[in-house]
Amino acid sequence: MGKLFGTDGIRGLANEYPMTSEMAMKVGRAVAYFFGRKKGNRSKIIIGKDTRISGYMLEYALVSGVCSMGADACLAGVLPTPGIAYITASTDADAGIVISASHNPFYDNGIKIFNRDGFKLSDEKEAEIESILLGDEISSISRNVRMAGGVYRIDDAGQNYIDFLLSKVQENFCQGMRIVIDCSNGATYKVAPELFFRLGAEVETLFNDPDGKNINENCGSENTSELRKIVLEKRADIGLAFDGDGDRLIAVDEKGNIITGDKILAICAKIMKKKDQLKNNTVVSTVMSNMGLGIALEDMGIKNIKAKVGDRYVLASMIHSGAVLGGEDSGHMIFLDHQTTGDGILTALKLLEALKDESKPLSELSKIMDVFPQVLINVEVKNKPDILSIPKINETIKAVEKNLAEKGRVLVRYSGTQPLCRVMVEGPTLKLTKKYCQEIADKVKEHIG
Question: Is residue 364 part of a domain?
Fold first, then answer.
């Protein structure tokens, strides 16, 4: 991994390295140079953001960098990450930049980059851009005011994204449905309620009043307690929880149960296979997906490929295998026949489509998969050495794996965006799984925490 780019762009505490105005300006310059040098003329960069208070600071710095290299900056304003991907791919833009830290708290922020086709950049492309912005390649370029780029606002970006989503379903698709939406005080706060209202649903909207600091605060895909409560109170058919930048979905069924990404994958895989839409009869998940998903897919006769954690790696495996459905238990879902990246609202439409096609409530559809008891403990770490290079941690992991045998599994990995070591254990009972997970987490904390 590079010095700046992690599993999902550049991320960190806003106003601290690397998420500073100075670095954002350098990123803007590097992106404009990288995409403009091969084009040989003025490039056009789309810039969008979520609702974090630091978004304006970073946006203006990015714009300054982009324009200083003679490129035009086109501002889409607050829009979900998949919306920026769509706007980038559907116009004559050369690249798209999203200012967001996804599901993280407001004091974090990040920068994600899309190519002209709406796909996130490969590790190799990110490394090239990183080399440019950390090096001297563009510092020697002669610049003058006559070559400076312009700044333009895309006033209809939100409506264009909504129209794109509307094109994926029939008119009045949600007629007669009662839906509760949790917008996480984030990037979906305008587009999601309008979309489902236009589709004919009876919509109850939660957490759609962003103030710059309340994004993801006790709400959204990471915290569905209020959503579950309101779904039961309103006797809704479904609850939909998006994260701060709108590329994730976690659902709640009519009984108040949480339906995570793995179950959504299994449900959608079944429907797509039935409709002969599941190309190559393959679904891509990640190494963090529950064992129950693999068993459910096997029972349906569907091939399951497991990628590294991160939607970029899921996408890479999908392209390599020819799959059109992939995702993560966290709620990142990619429907490659329709979208180039994870899209929470599109995922919601696909899940609602399954409810209509099967004429069953979500609680019934979710029985397609049994969830193995899974415990995840995040341990704050000072550094990130190779886990297996630390004897005491390695010994503990091996001991737990031996005890679990074929009845469970262990996965210990570092977060690509935070100073955390994630310890995940699946096992035959919740009590045993908690015990084993805590044993490993304690060793991690003792040696690198």
Answer: no
- Domain end among 109, 129, 158: 158
**Domain identity same for 34 and 142:** yes
Using the predicted structure, report yes or no on whether residue 294 has a pLDDT greater than 90: yes
Q: Could you say which DSSP state residue 430 is in? A: H
User: CA 170, 172, 175 angle in degrees (round to 5)?
Assistant: 130
Radius of gyration in angstroms for the set of CA atoms belonging to the chain, rounded to a whole number: 22
Q: How many domains does the chain have?
A: 4
Same domain, 197 and 150: no
365 lies in some domain: no
Whether residue 434 is predicted with pLDDT greater than 50 in this model: the reply is yes
- Which amino acids are annotated catalytic? 102
**Enclosing domain of residue 441:** 374-448
- Dihedral, 322, 323, 329, 330 alpha carbons, nearest 10: 70
Cβ atoms of 283 and 323 within 8 Å: the answer is: yes
Sheet-wide strand order for 44-49: 5-6, 9-13, 108-115, 95-99, 44-49, 72-78, 151-153
pTM above 0.85, yes or no: yes
Distance CA 322, CA 316 (A): 10
